[in-house]
Specification:
By secondary structure, the chain is mainly beta. The protein is built from one helix and 19 strands. Strand 18 and strand 19 form a beta hairpin. It is globular. The two termini are about 10 Å apart.
Amino acid sequence: MALIKTILGKTPVFGKNIYLSDNCTVIGDVILGDDCNIWFNAVLRGDVNSIRIGNRVNIQDNACLHATYKTSPLTIGNNVSIAHNAIVHGCTVKDNVLIGMGSIVMDDAIIEENCIVAAGAVVTKGFKTEKGGVYAGCPAKKIKDTDEKLQKDLIDRIVNNYAMYADWYR
């Protein structure tokens, strides 16, 4: 069973049709929207600041979501995939975004709509992407624009697939 923990009087709040893997951890001031799924060993630690997550978000295996005490909450929009081993910390991720495997998004960064942060990329503190870009490298830089094909074949496909996978486990 998932570890759901109250801390400092704050208990996670979950929307409708949520899937939580057996060993994910959700702590404190966390609010998830509808149709979200949290996978194996993922940790959402809302102990030092808030975590707000929209609808149709998947947080894949070993992802770590956290914030910074009193300064940088974590906000994630709708239709977002946070891939395996990603670290997303005290930043804002807007709608229709893919955060790639093993990538890091640091405090006060803003990932605009329809973006892809490539696998292994490091988005540094305070960096703001342009809407509809693909960002890669360390530090992350824009390498191209997302087009309709990338939106459909990558961002939308992964969100839809993870909704299907969650149904398999329910």
